Automatic annotation (TrEMBL), chain A:
GO terms for biological process: L-leucine biosynthetic process. Catalyzes the isomerization between 2-isopropylmalate and 3-isopropylmalate, via the formation of 2-isopropylmaleate. GO terms for molecular function: 3-isopropylmalate dehydratase activity. It catalyses: (2R,3S)-3-isopropylmalate = (2S)-2-isopropylmalate. This is 3-isopropylmalate dehydratase small subunit.
UniProtKB/TrEMBL annotation, chain B:
Residues 7-411 form the Aconitase/3-isopropylmalate dehydratase large subunit alpha/beta/alpha domain. The keyword Iron applies. The keyword Lyase applies. Gene3D superfamilies: Aconitase, domain 3. Binds 1 [4Fe-4S] cluster per subunit. Heterodimer of LeuC and LeuD. The lineage of its organism: Bacteria, Bacillati, Bacillota, Clostridia, Eubacteriales. PANTHER family: 3-ISOPROPYLMALATE DEHYDRATASE LARGE SUBUNIT 2, HOMOACONITASE, MITOCHONDRIAL-RELATED. This is 3-isopropylmalate dehydratase large subunit. One of its GO terms (molecular function) is 4 iron, 4 sulfur cluster binding. Pathway: Amino-acid biosynthesis; L-leucine biosynthesis; L-leucine from 3-methyl-2-oxobutanoate: step 2/4. It holds the Pfam family Aconitase. It comes from Lawsonibacter faecis. Coiled coil: none annotated.
Length: 161, 419
């Protein structure tokens, strides 16, 4: 799996431009994912690829279409120095893994072979021969992810009917 | 340990005496909001999860404001989906074309948000209601679906950044300039995961509309929310709008802040944000003369009556420059009526502006003012990201209504004080 690397402040307008929000079908969104920052992304991304970016990834709009489009591309996870807060909670709520690790985000380069272990938070760059550890999620958030997202977790707890 | 305004509201809504920064809580919600882009995704998730019950028909608001009046077939289908859901679940606060306005102008105007309440909205600018002393924050569609079903949302209690305001704003300088200045100072992630807590003697001199503009753009600094204390200005605004009991919260004297920023309002100049980040700020005199082709006056940031007044005062007896398109969007039907009564709409049309029914359209490049290749707009909206209002080669300069109106008259970025 390969790495796509971007800088700081990748905003939701470039992840999925508003002109495509009139069709929220995940596959349709995926076909335009990252279009305004990387025109080749949607046509070259493959199942299991990873996005690595700088600080404040996903800033801007609340559109859940942003993590949905990335997930629907088959991207395995996003590793960033930090995430904008709505993108962060949207990813958790839809059960899409994100990892906050400034060191890994700085050192991993585009095209590197990278593997991730969500259970331990360990990120391994096989090209560089380096490993890092992302901060683990608190148990509450892990519960949401393990249940497959917020709604399933609320149903499992008997709160949502 | 002392708590901030935000922490006190969250503690109360989580049924706790005390919370501290970083703590994960589940809070009871007073209002759950969505629009025609985010509510359909929430409704799809709600149905897909097999949910059949909403927590309270009076505490959900669905406002069709982004792509309306519908710009294409797909948008019309999304609106229809939201309309059907609102009808099926007897949602009290459903606003369709003819009654709707830009959601973050509409909800306060209708008295649907009050001090001390906890509000989530599937729209990032839901943080606007902090102006009224409420905790309000933007979330995604799944959060909206969960909120509609349970009346609950999970939060990490935010640490705080204290913004102390002193003095008074000078003529032509507004809440927009305060917030652009602050974002320029701390950056687009300067308040990431944090609450912005506005305080100081300068607050009392800020109008309600200035406060709405400031809280509205808390997200542009990465903030979870941006909250003001409740004072006489707030109470005057609430009078006649909110008749249910509400509670105001003051920060404890020993509340903990990660950082404090002091802004002397007397010293602020009209400020703009150049492409392509809201933090890329300059005072208007530094960039005066930059050509623009389009002017947008409106949005959840600056589409309120005072914004209309400021624009009208600049445009009165003047004309929009040849080659410039100026589009004005009063944010609600009531604001439109007031702007007509006060002669602002006539001023705009006499000046050569287009005046539109409320919509979020142009702010996000949806419709009603999309840019072409290489065009530059000056806009009273909130974001100037790459491709936000048109192709990736188009540009947006963020500004106050006075600066935007002055620039419409000259065709270049202009300090209204120099007209």
């Amino acid at each position: 799996m390969k790495v796509y690397k971007y800088g700081d402040n990748v905003d939701t307008d470039v992840i999925i431009p508003a002109r495509h929000l009139n069709n929220p079908d995940p596959k349709a969104l995926a076909s335009h994912c990252m279009e305004d920052i990387d025109a080749d992304f949607a046509s070259t991304v493959e199942e299991g690829d990873i996005i690595v970016a700088g600080a404040n990834f996903g800033c801007g709009s609340s559109r859940e279409h942003a993590p949905v489009s990335i997930k629907a591309c088959g991207v395995k996870c996003v590793i960033a120095a930090s995430f904008a807060r709505i993108f962060y909670r949207n990813s958790i709520n839809i059960g899409f893994p994100i990892m906050e690790c400034p060191e890994a985000a700085a050192e991993i380069q585009a095209g590197d072979k990278v593997s991730v272990d969500f259970a331990t938070g360990v990120i391994t760059d096989e090209t560089l021969g380096k490993t890092w550890e992302a901060a683990p999620f608190p148990a509450f958030i892990n519960g949401i992810i393990e249940n497959g997202g917020l709604l399933k977790s609320l149903k499992a707890r008997g709160i949502a009917k | 340990m002392g708590m901030t305004m935000t922490q006190k509201i969250l503690a109360k809504h989580a049924g706790l005496d005390q919370v501290e920064a970083g703590q994960l809580i589940e809070a009871r919600l007073d209002m759950v909001l969505g629009n025609d882009i985010t509510a359909p995704v929430a409704i799809t998730e709600f149905r897909k999860a097999g949910l059949t019950e909403i927590f309270h028909r009076d505490k959900i608001a669905i406002v069709l404001d982004h792509s309306v009046p519908c710009k294409d077939i797909k948008s019309a289908q999304l609106c229809a989906q939201a309309r059907d859901f609102a009808r099926e679940y007897h949602i009290t606060h459903f606003y369709d074309v003819g009654q709707m306005g830009v959601e973050h102008a509409l909800l306060p105007e209708k008295g649907l948000v009050a001090p001390g309440e906890a509000i989530i909205g599937a729209d990032s600018h839901t943080c606007t209601y902090g102006a009224l002393g409420a905790f309000s924050t933007g979330v995604g569609s799944t959060d909206m679906a969960a909120g509609m079903a349970t009346g609950l949302a999970w939060f990490k209690v935010p640490p705080a950044l204290k913004v102390t305001l002193k003095g008074r704003l000078r003529p032509f300088v507004s809440g927009k300039d305060v917030m652009l200045h602050l974002i320029g100072l701390i950056g687009v992630d300067g308040a990431l995961y944090k609450s912005l807590e506005f305080t100081g003697e300068g607050v009392s001199a800020l109008s309600m509309d200035d406060r709405f503009t400031i809280s509205n753009m808390a997200i542009e600094a990465g903030g979870k929310n941006g909250i003001f204390p409740v004072d006489g200005v707030t109470r005057a605004y609430l009078d006649g709008r909110v008749d249910r009991p509400w509670e105001s919260f003051e920060a404890d004297p020993d509340a903990v802040y990660e950082r404090e920023v002091v802004i002397d309002l007397n010293e602020l100049k009209s400020t703009v944000a150049l492409p392509h980040l809201p933090s890329n700020t300059r005072t208007v005199d530094q960039v005066a003369g930059t050509p623009i082709q389009q002017v947008i006056i409106g949005s959840c940031t600056n589409g309120r009556l005072e914004d209309m007044r400021q624009a009208a005062e600049v445009l009165k007896g003047r004309k929009v420059a040849p080659g410039v398109r100026c589009i004005v969007f009063p944010a609600t039907q009531q604001i439109m009526l007031d702007a007509m009564r006060l002669g602002y709409v006539e001023t705009f049309i006499q000046a050569g502006c287009a005046v539109s029914t409320p919509t979020c359209g142009p702010c996000l490049g949806g419709h009603m003012g999309v840019l072409s290749d290489g065009e530059r707009a000056i806009s009273t909206t909130n974001r100037n990201f790459v491709g936000r209002m048109g192709p990736v080669s188009s540009e947006i300069i963020l500004a106050s209504p006075s600066v935007a109106a002055a620039s419409a008259v000259t065709g270049v970025v202009t300090d209204p004080a120099t007209l």
